[in-house]
């Protein structure tokens, strides 16, 4: 007997037939003698609609009321899923975030989970009941108001719940059947990974592989929750996200991700003296503008060029902040380009193998792709290239690292 958290995303509960399918899957696990807690998202498209209504009424709407509105999507699906389960003879009960309770901080719209009291849910599971918990929702104890965890937050709900309930596994059912070496829409010969380490999944999730929400992977790694990503439409084993000790053969490169969500900013002829970088990046961080890749040239004539990337959506704000500080920082010109893509190769084997970056550069050179910015971490090499070359670059790298099926 195992204790399992089963999480179903928006496409898996998009209509009543799909909710019946969810109930059938849950029933199978229950019939096999497992204790099961279910987490569901809102029906596909619902949250987008709710967000849009708030925005249409007032672009600067109150975040507490936004949460009141967007949390409703999951209230519908927990009730419907509980009804569907009861209809096939499985004892089930719905739970909103506040009822569990899932306590968060007060950052409405993107709250962090602080504590989940799993006592009552565990008691129910031990009596054979299936709790159906709303993803995405929490409660902020200070003012006793409903919070939400940020878009895609029900993955985080599921992992946090699995940790609180000391579950043996957290199964994330979605519309893809696992984690692939890269996006199969770009590389049809991409392979499904049987296992991938938390560290790799985290790098892949944060550089644009959209299977799991980044924060959920962070938490899974911290709380050592075994996560399985699998399809709710097909009966196939999925991909396991686990500790790297559980992975026998450590590939040098496990996956390739790309992101078109970044923009490149170059400050020309920045004075080359102490304190300048702090003056450039301080105000950006105060305004919550995330900066990712950063390169600075060697100064020749007392000035240097500084290039970095920010999220595309943050570009107007970053530009505004930088232009306002132009006199103080003393740069000559600001150039921005949002027609770029970041391509990253990720693998824990890089820790012990040299030459990953050079084979990346070689493969891109052979295709005539110009590299604009490079950054590396212990298990990742990323390059910024012109957006038009995204597919070509991903395909070339997939082949070079021997990932093609
Ligand atoms: N329904 C929420 C969203 O669409 C949470 C989730 O599905 O993960 O962002
Ligand atoms: Mg989701």
Automatic annotation (TrEMBL):
* Metabolic or biological pathway: Amino-acid biosynthesis; L-lysine biosynthesis via DAP pathway; (S)-tetrahydrodipicolinate from L-aspartate: step 1/4; Amino-acid biosynthesis; L-threonine biosynthesis; L-threonine from L-aspartate: step 1/5; Amino-acid biosynthesis; L-methionine biosynthesis via de novo pathway; L-homoserine from L-aspartate: step 1/3
| Cross-referenced InterPro entries | AceGlu_kinase-like_sf (IPR036393), ACT-like_dom_sf (IPR045865), ACT_Aspartokinase (IPR054352), ACT_dom (IPR002912), AKii-LysC-BS (IPR041740), Asp/Glu/Uridylate_kinase (IPR001048), Asp_kin_monofn (IPR005260), Asp_kinase (IPR001341)
Mind telling me which PROSITE patterns this protein's record contains?
Answer: ACT, ASPARTOKINASE
- Name the catalysed reactions: L-aspartate + ATP = 4-phospho-L-aspartate + ADP
Keywords linked to the UniProt accession: Amino-acid biosynthesis, ATP-binding, Kinase, Lysine biosynthesis, Nucleotide-binding, Transferase
Q: Which GO terms describe its molecular function?
A: aspartate kinase activity
Its family remark reads: Belongs to the aspartokinase family.
Spell out the protein name for this chain.
Aspartokinase
Which species is this UniProt entry from? Sabulicella glaciei
